[in-house]
Write a structure and sequence with these properties.
elongated, Rossmann fold, five-stranded antiparallel β-sheet, 427 residues, 12 helices, six-stranded mixed β-sheet, Immunoglobulin-like, 3 domains, alpha+beta, 28% strand
């Protein structure tokens, strides 16, 4: 049983009466009347044990958007239900109307809709709904928690979606509307057309030229059904913030854009997220649902404050991808040199693309010359940038393609690198 604020107010009035009429009889009468009213009110309240509670609504929502979850209360009893309903959502869910009052007639049903707008990606779980059923006087209530779990998964924002139309247009130039005249090592033959000035003479089809008495050249299109393995580093460096966002969030945004683009290109995308253990793995999702599947897997990822075991990562990739594919490693370039001992095993069998989030603050600091402190900061920033450039050069010498870009440019730059590799037939 629970007491309401109205019961407290009545008790305060009783205290004033006792103070005005100071006698033991007054105390006994006031306490007796108040206790009797509370007990009668609790007895007349609709029972909460027999209530049926159901939930319905959204189960997925993008960060920055809102979702609605409706709780339905079915009152099968013979007394009207005057209830206060509370759904226990975590603070990060930013639930509105988490507490609401509800009046349900006998034999009827009522609904309460809660709007949540999560501020963090991951699962927002509400395990139970607590119902307080008040009596007609509103002094006391019966209370019971009903376990009706509901989960809304907050998906990471797809901020780089705005780049997708432009990248798809570039893809169509490679495969579809404008056929490439220069074949790459892995390109597929598409058709023949007449030679025009500027075409590579190596693409001339001499047999067709002899038959038609016109110079004919072969046109090619990038191969489809290539395999891409996206590797996300969820170690401690992924927790570092660049331009206000964790590196992992930027990496997830880039992974979503790459997945959408590769699926449109007819390629298959796998996902591995790991540090000292494999946190999540997506294998061979359907092309039509690849983006949704990968995004759903990314939603539960959080940086772990541990060092990444690149030997484990390399072993996992080699075990998963036995044929040649494109491995996209999203990690911090300062620690990507940890890949070097394992790099030869990857580049011997696969094409490697390393994506890293560059800090634009370094560029700003490198230009400072206002005072002594600015000069020292500029020297430190210049040294850090030189170290990143040297680390990128070491990776490139071993056969990796390196993309080091600020957070707002990394997804698009990574997509451009993928299209370049695809167009040159290196996948």
């Amino acid at each position: 049983m629970a007491l309401s604020g109205r019961a407290a107010a009545v008790a305060v009035v009783g205290v004033l009466v006792v103070l005005a009429i100071r006698s033991a009889v007054t105390v006994a009468v006031v306490d007796g009347l108040l206790l009797a009213a509370i007990l009668v009110d609790a007895v007349l309240a609709a029972p909460v044990r027999t209530l049926q509670v159901r939930r319905s609504g959204d189960t997925r929502v993008r960060l920055g958007e809102s979702a609605t979850v409706t709780t339905t209360i079915v009152n099968a009893g013979r007394r009207p239900l005057r209830a206060q309903l509370r759904a226990a959502w975590p603070p990060s869910a930013q639930a509105s109307q988490a507490q609401a009052r509800l009046h349900v007639p006998a034999g009827g049903q009522g609904q309460v809709t809660v709007t949540i707008a999560p501020v963090r990606h991951g699962d927002c779980v509400s395990e139970r709904v607590t119902i307080r059923s008040f009596g007609p006087l509103g002094l006391a209530a019966r209370q019971r928690g009903h376990r009706v779990a509901w989960t809304v998964r907050a998906l990471p924002p797809f901020k780089s979606r705005r780049y997708l139309p432009g990248k798809l247009a570039q893809l169509r130039e490679l495969d579809g509307q404008h056929r490439a005249a220069l074949p790459g090592q892995g390109s597929e033959f598409d058709s023949l057309r007449e030679y025009v000035i500027g075409d590579d003479v190596r693409s001339i089809d001499w047999r067709s030229t002899a038959r038609r008495r016109d110079v004919m050249v072969r046109t090619y299109r990038p191969e489809r059904d290539r395999r891409i393995v996206v590797v996300l580093d969820t170690g401690r460096t992924a927790a570092g913030r660049v331009a206000g966002y964790p590196r992992l969030d930027t990496a997830m945004d880039a992974a979503q854009l790459l997945t959408a683009l590769a699926s449109a290109a007819g390629d298959r995308v796998d996902l591995i997220a790991a540090d000292q253990q494999v946190r999540t793995r997506v294998l061979r999702p359907p092309r039509t649902a690849a983006l949704a599947t990968v995004t759903d897997a990314l939603a539960t990822l959080q940086p772990e404050l541990v060092e990444t075991d690149w030997r484990l990562v390399t072993t996992t990739v080699l075990a998963q991808a036995r044929r040649r594919c494109l491995v996209v490693a999203l990690t911090d370039l300062n620690f990507a040199v940890d890949l070097l001992p394992e790099l030869r095993a990857l580049t011997a069998r696969h094409e490697l693309l390393v994506g890293s989030v560059a800090d634009p603050r370094l560029t700003e600091l490198a230009g400072g010359r206002g005072d002594a402190a600015s000069v020292y900061a500029a020297a430190a920033a210049t040294r850090a940038m030189s170290q990143r450039a040297e680390q990128a050069a070491q990776l490139a010498r071993l056969g990796a393609t390196v993309v080091d870009a600020p957070p707002e440019r990394l997804p698009a730059a990574l997509a451009d690198a993928y299209l370049t590799l695809k167009g040159s037939g290196r996948l």
